[in-house]
Every structure is written in C-alpha cells, then in structure tokens.
Design a protein that fits this description.
alpha+beta, rod-shaped, Immunoglobulin-like, six-stranded antiparallel sheet, single chain, 221 residues, 2 helices
C-alpha cells in the first residue's frame, strides 16, 4: 500500500510537471523576478499540498498498523497472564495435594506407632453382696511404655489406678473394678508410644443391671 501511494504521488507529480512545462513553453512566461516568484509559488503549492496529504495518509496507515500491533501485543500479554495464572493455580493445587499426602502419610505413621487399647469385661465375682468386675485392657496396636490408667470419679477399687512400664502388642493389662456408686466413671489411659510421643485415650465404665458396660475408646491426644 505504501509503494502504491508513493507511485501514485510520483505519477501525479510527473503529470503536473509536464502540464506546467507545457504551459511554460506554449505561453509567454513572466519576465520579472517577482512575477517568476509568484509563478513558482503557484507551481509548487499544489504539489506541496498533495505530498502533505499523502504523508498524512501514510502516517495514518502507520499509526493504524502500530495500533494493531499494540492490540496484538496486549492480547498476547493477556493470554500470557492467563496462562501464568493457570500455571500458578495448577502449582498451588499440586502443592496442596502434596501437603495433604504428606499429612496423610504423617498421620499413618503416627497411627502405626500408637498403641490401640481394647477394653472388655472379663468376668464378675460377687462375695458378701459386693461385686468385683474384672476388666482386661488388650493392646492391639504398637508397643506402649509408661502406661497408667486412672478413673474419674475414682472407684472404690482400684483407688489409685494401675499401670505398667511396658505393654507390648497383644499384651493385656488386667484390673478388678469395684464401684462405690452406680454412676459412670471415665477411665483415662496415658502412655508413651513407640516414637516417644505421649498420648492419652479414654472410655467409660458403668454398672448396668449388675453387668459392667464399657464404652467406646476415644483418643484424647
């Protein structure tokens, strides 16, 4: 388009020069300097204005191209920002998944080293109208040390709780319970797991219809 406009300008200028030369040759040309000045001013003015218009049109086209280029650059920048945002979102999701997986693995590791206590009623002995209930605490998890069990509120038997320095897997902690009241009591077992971390679980014990009822074991720590 630029070359075509330039070619048109050259052709129009050539035609104008030929027309002016023809007029200059066939007619009596001015002889005085001021008349010649007026002549050349009138001769070059249309061409100057014509080339000014061509230049303005050329600048407009170049400005249009520049605007289009800027628009394309803005679109590319927008696409790049969107892609970067998507990559950041994907990276964030990957990090969150890795953190969740790490937390799950840590929790599996913690669960693997913890003891798991399974209390159950192992029998009842009644003498003189007083009943003693045998309670077995079986460790079905990992080895525990410094195991101690106490009751709140305290029972008539045992009065100070029981404990053992080591309770291996499948090991059993046995005690006799004697209730002063029929209200439920909460048994709390504290221990140190295989990783050396302290822990605590609790469950309820209660006499119902002369039978010992043991509640669900819940982990406190």
């Amino acid at each position: 388009m630029k070359d075509k406009r330039f070619l048109i300008g050259v052709c129009v200028t050539a035609v104008w020069l030929a027309f002016t030369v023809c007029m200059f040759v066939t007619r009596e040309h001015p002889g005085k300097l001021n008349e010649r000045g007026d002549f050349f001013a009138g001769f070059f003015a249309p061409m100057a204005f014509f080339w000014l218009v061509l230049g303005y049109m050329q600048q407009g086209e170049e400005l249009k191209h520049s605007t289009e280029a800027l628009r394309l650059q803005a679109a590319e920048l927008k696409n790049s920002v969107e892609q970067q945002s998507q990559l950041v979102a994907v990276s964030r999701e990957q990090v969150q998944q890795e953190l969740r997986a790490l937390e799950e693995e840590r929790e599996r590791r913690r669960d693997a080293v913890r003891p798991k206590f399974a209390p159950h009623h192992a029998g009842t002995m009644t003498s003189g109208g007083v009943s003693d209930f045998k309670l077995n605490i079986v460790n079905v998890g990992n080895t525990a040390t410094n195991v101690h069990m106490r009751f709140d509120p305290a029972l008539e038997k045992p009065s100070t709780g029981i404990g053992t320095a080591l309770l291996a897997r499948d090991g059993t902690l046995t005690t006799d319970l004697r209730f002063a009241l029929t209200s439920p009591s909460t048994a709390r077992i504290t221990y140190v797991d295989a990783d050396g971390m302290p822990g605590e679980v609790e469950f309820s014990v209660q006499v119902v219809d002369r039978s010992l009822v043991v509640g669900q074991v819940a982990r406190v720590l």
